[in-house]
Amino acid sequence: MRFWIVCLAVILAGFGLVMSGANEYLFFAGFVVLQAIVLATAWNILGGYAGYVNFGVPAFVGAGAYSALVVHLSLDAPLIVQIAAAALVSGILGFAVGVISVRLRGIFFSIATVALVFILETVVINWRYVGGATGLQLTRPTDVWPFESYTRMLFWVMVIMAVASIAIARYIQDSHIGRGLRALRDSEEAAECTGVPTLRLKLIACTVSGALLGAAGAPMPMYLSYIEPYSSFNLVYAVSALAMPIIGGMSHWVGPLIGAVILASIQQIVTVTISSELNVLVVGVLLVFFVIAAPDGIVGLYRKWKASSK
Amino acid sequence: MESILEVSKVSKHFGGFTALSGVDLEVKTGERLGLIGPNGSGKTTLINCISGSLFNDEGAIRFKGQPIGKLPAHKRTRLGIARSFQIPRPFSSMSMLENLLVPLSYVSGITGAEAEEKAYEILEGMGLKQKALVPTNQLSQVELRKMELARAMAAHPSLLISDEAMAGLSGAEVDEVLQILFDVNSRGITIIMIEHIMQAVMSFSQRVVCLDAGQIICQGTPKEVVANPHVQRAYLGD
């Protein structure tokens, strides 16, 4: 109950902030942090709970962004429909990746997901309708009542998506699906032999994770008023989506949230104050530090501290 | 007595290697069956085919009269086949109690306080109650072995397959595990025991089956099997 009150409070606070006179840049930068929360949380459903490391995050984000673009171009669909289309397409993509997991495990699964990025990127580069390699310039709808600007609206939409993705991750973690996923992460064979339908659970995790990753990518064309394949399928998405749960802790839904807020905020600050190139270095340095010093992330550090202070 | 498991003409190949060839085996309800054979004779492959970790290439496997050869492992578990592993495979991120909650939830559909109560009950029966909340990566070898049996029992089986549950244990520990298996059997649960510790197999089994190079070379009472010249040759050479 407390969780849901906090969720509602966050959504309302987001709305209040958007309607206030705060600087537009806050929403432009805040959007990136919120998107990071969705990406990290979605990635963790498969990578953290089930132990299947998906390096193909850009494929899902890109598929989401381009699905949104296609319904925008062909149907002039509103944002909500764009997001739904993105989630649907990426969910199907996730399901396909789940099918791959029947035969490929560990590093081989991860490599297959990387391949997906290059396949989709190549498809888009050669697809004239969505702008091909040069991309497309887009015009945002001007009427976004009650919001003052499109960026403000996108910020609030992303607040809702972040809250929704966390609620979904939390539900999965606490349900019997979560226990089954943990079991199959520890030993897939033992999980099967204790009645866990491992394939079905992996398909659920892949589909949900994929749909959320795609939904997070859906607002990208409108956010930048521009879309092109190289940044849409940028592998930096893969590194960030993986680094954030590792830094925060992969065993609990709060881990990716903490990791995303810390990492994405530092990145935004570094981008503005030092250099836009250096922000990638931050990811690398923090990742190395946490992998060595705190392999269970901040959640792990907290648990250790709690256990020792008992 | 009615048979619970029928394995007929089961073969399994790994590339050019034949791990099992035309194995026929019938297990009666409530029986204590010992499965022996030298290393690499196909014991684990056979029980992997029965439990569903592997699929047999040829032949048929029937459990309680129902063909199960094509079913995935989790469905066979739900039908009543549970097993332990030769090398223990605990869910290492969980406590012993949580390990048992997995089959309780996925096989019997029991969750929450009821499941915990049931899990404690099973652990108590195996003398593990004190360790219920200990993470499995801190358990000793004998505790891990017992935990695997407890987890298998939490799946509410009618056939329990114990794959070398006593390997690496001391004499006293072997007796403890044997006692657990006798207790399980006394509740009407059929047991197939794979074991290298001859003393344990011989005292436990009502019938012993000996595999060599993927074929059953002999079966009978423990005494008959030990006296069989084929078995002696398989173990000791000519």
Give an account of the 3D structure.
The complex is a heterodimer of chains A (310) and B (238). In chain A, 76% of the residues lie in helices and 1% in strands. With 310 residues, chain A is mostly helical. Chain A has one domain (2-234). Chain A has a two-stranded antiparallel sheet. In chain A, helix 3 (57-75) packs across helix 9. The longest helix of chain A has 26 residues, at 24-49. Chain A starts with a helix and ends with a helix. Chain B has 238 residues and is α/β, with parallel strands linked by helices. Chain B has a single domain, classed as Rossmann fold, CATH 3.40.50.300. Helices cover 39% and strands 26% of the residues of chain B. Chain B has nine helices and ten strands. Chain B has helices at residues 43-51, 73-79, 96-106, 112-125, 141-154, 171-186, 198-204, 222-227, 229-236; strands at 3-14, 17-28, 32-36, 58-63, 66-67, 81-83, 159-163, 190-194, 207-212, 215-220. Chain B has a six-stranded mixed β-sheet with strand order 6-7-8-3-9-10, sandwiched between helices. Chain B has a four-stranded antiparallel β-sheet with strand order 2-1-4-5, covered by helices on one side. In chain B, strand 1 and strand 2 form a beta hairpin. Chain B is globular. The N and C termini of chain B lie far apart (38 Å). The mean pLDDT of chain B is 91. The A-B interface holds A 176, 179-180, 182-183, 185-187, 189-199, 251 and B 51-53, 72-74, 77-78, 82-83, 85, 89-94, 98, 101-103, 105-107, 111, 151-152, 154-155.
